[in-house]
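Quick one, T. Sequence first:
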Amino acid sequence: MTDAEAVQDGPAIRYAPDRPLPLHQLVYLPEGDEITVGRPDTDSYGIFPPDGAEVLRRLEQGMPPREAAIWYEARYRESLDIDDLIAALDELGFVREPGAPDTSPVTEDALVRWRRLGAALFSVPAWICYGLLVAWALVAMARRPDLAPSYHNVFFTDYYTLIQASLFVAAVPQLLLHEGFHALAGRRLGLRSRLRISRRLYFVVLETSLDGLVAVPRRKRYLPIVAGMLADVVVMAVLTIAADLTREPGGGLSFGGRFCLAFAYAVLLRILWQFSLYLRTDLYVLVSTALGCVDLHGTAMRMLRNRVNRLLGRRGRLLDESDWHPVDRRVARWYSWLIVGGYAVSLTTFLVAIAPIVYRMFAGVLGRFTGHGASWPELLDSLVFCGFILGQLVVLAWVTVRDRRRDRARRLDHVIA
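Structure tokens:
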């Protein structure tokens, strides 16, 4: 490195060691023994030890890199590889091109849109409205038992294809609302958010990205995490109230009311799914965030594997626990049992809430083909329904085979490399 200029390989970073390093405006959030530093305008964040964050602060304040290295060695009695540090900062996008203006003003209004809408949706009057709606629905269910959740509610019509198609179509805006509540709860804090389309097996799912949560105090992260479940609860309450208010003159449920209860039951299943803690659900993220974990899910799964291997006497298959994050290891001792409970919740939900629906549908289809008196619309409905189910199974098998081939190809490429 010369006095005039230093060149860092990789993405080229040119800086004068005796001149201030051009950095974007950064935010700092202490979290225990670590400090999160990042750019909210690009959702780029890194975790630094306190001494590294202090060096970064001084660089941002205008201290030249050479002076920062000298200061660090005098303060901590250790040498600092300033070239490696600047390369890491560039990889995170913290370093500006020499002479380029700072394009990262850390002002809440400049970072996000819909901030006011997010603030309104989670204001005190809004919480009062949500509470009143849920209370109204609970009172209505207590007074009218036919409003209570039941798998029988799914069968609002005798045509199974109509049930499947209508609930699928209605789920799209509900999923958007669920993810929208996540996003708006974050935007009220000035955080950027992105809605992306992902896939689980052959299901297309929506996911909200709120990377900026790592740069806000932990107590402010909880609402954006659980906001989606809040939306589900409110939607279920509104559907129950709508079913009660649209009764026929004789007191029976109208067709629209029956559909509302069918959809409310589907929303309830989504809420129960959040308790499947063997997956990275909203509740898992809540627990992990509240306890300050790094990779609680992975650590808990590995701890369960070790417990099973110890029980079976397979000592040679035990995983080394010394490399696990200490917080993850401590929490995983009890959270791993919640993962087992999550499997129990999923199994119970399937047996109690889903299996009866599947049995009734397939028994009905079989009865139409083997019995007498079925009309041609009912037979056509059964054919379309069976074709739709068969199509899903074919797609599932194709996706499974394709993913296994890709994984095998990756492993082979890794071995060859």
